[in-house]
C-alpha cells in the first residue's frame, strides 16, 4: 500500500490510535503517559524516561514508564542530572520541543524494531505540538484567573484597606497566575513587596533609571541583579504613579541562560504575559488611586470634625466655649423651657497668675473645669465665658435645687486640693429665666448676682 509505512498492520493501527490519543490528551501528565506507553511498546518494552530541562540547564526526571519494574534502572535514571550524564548513559535520546526550544528529552535503552525513527519522530512531534497547545490553554486559564482576581480587587477597594493589605490578599494568586516568585509595588517612594524579590537598593536604583529613561514605556524587562523582573507602569489618566514589578527566575530560552554573555539580553516574559501584566498594573493604578481618595476623604472628615469641635469647645478647659454657650442659651430661651443660669468666677485669680505664673494659672483653670464638670449632670451645660469666668445652664429645676447645686459647687471647690498651696474659692451669681427674658437681661442679672457675691466677701452664692 503506497504511502503507508512498512510497519506490521496491527502496529500501524496501534500507532494511528496512539497518535490520536496523544493529540487529544487533556493535560501534560496524560500526554506523557500516552507517549511513554506507545514508545515503550515500540522500543521493545524498554522503560521510557522523560526529562525536563530546567532554567539552569540541568535535567530532572519528570516521568518514566513503567514505574513498577526494574528499580535499578530507575536509580540509574535518577542519577542523570544534566545533558552530559544523559549522553554518557547510552540511552537512545529524542528531543521534546517546547515553544522556546528544547523542553526536555525522552530516553530509553537501545531497542531493536522495524523503521522506528519516522514513527517515533512523528509521535514526538505530535506530542510537542499538543504540549504547546496545552500550554496555550493554560495561558487562557491564567487570563481568566486574572479577570476574576480583578473583580475581587475592585470589591476590596470599596472597604478601608492599604497597598500592603492588597498585596497580602492577592499576592499568592497573582504569583500563581503569572508563575512568578515575587511581586513588588513601587509607589510614592515606598516599595511594597510580596514573595521573593531582589534586595531593595538595586531595585529602587533600576526603577529610578526607568523613570528617567523609560518613562513612556508601558513595560520593561529589568536586568543585572533584578534580571527576570518585568516592570509595568502604574498610570492613571496619563499620570505615572509608580511601578508594578513581577519577578521570575526562568528565562524563556533556558538553554541559552548558561552563556553569561547572553544573559543580559534574554527575555523572561512572553508578549501575552507582558500585556496581562499591563492589565494588572492598570487595575492596581485605579485601585491605589481609589484608596488614596478614600484615605483623603477620611482625613477630610476628621479635619472637619476637628474644626467643628473647635467652633464649640474651649481648647484650654475642653468645656463648651462662649460662642456655643450663647447658642445654647438662645435656644433655651426660644424653647420656653424653665432654666437657671449660674455664672461663677475664681476668686483672686489674678494673684494666682502673679504668684505662680500663667502656666500654673492655666492648670488651675483646667482642674477647675474638670472638678465642676464632675459635679454636674450630663444634661447640664457648662461653658467657659472667658478668662476665669464660667457659665452653667441647668434646665427644669426649682430655685431651691439651683441654690443647693451652687452651694455644693462652692463647697467642693473650697475642699478640693489644687496644685498650689493657697486655698481656692469661687463666687457664684445665680438667676432663673423670667418670662420675656432676652439673653442680655439674663446675663446682666447673673453678672450682677456674681458681683454682689464678690462684694459680700467671695466664696458664696448670690441670687437675683
Ligand atoms: N492663666 C490664665 N489666666 C487668665 C486666662 N484668662 C484670663 N486670665 C487672667 O485671669 C485673671 C482674672 O482676674 P479677675 O477675674 O479680673 O480678677 P480676680 O483676681 O479673679 O479677682 P476677683 O474676680 O475680684 O476675685 C486676670 O489676671 C487674667 O489675666 C487664661 O486663659 N489663663
From TrEMBL:
SUPFAM superfamilies: GAF domain-like (SSF55781), Nucleotide cyclase (SSF55073). It catalyses: 2 GTP = 3',3'-c-di-GMP + 2 diphosphate. It is an enzyme of class 2 (transferase). It comes from the Bacteria. Its EC number is 2.7.7.65. Residues 337-464 form the GGDEF domain. Pfam families: GGDEF (PF00990). SMART domains: GGDEF. PANTHER family: DIGUANYLATE CYCLASE DGCM-RELATED, REGULATORY COMPONENTS OF SENSORY TRANSDUCTION SYSTEM. This is diguanylate cyclase.
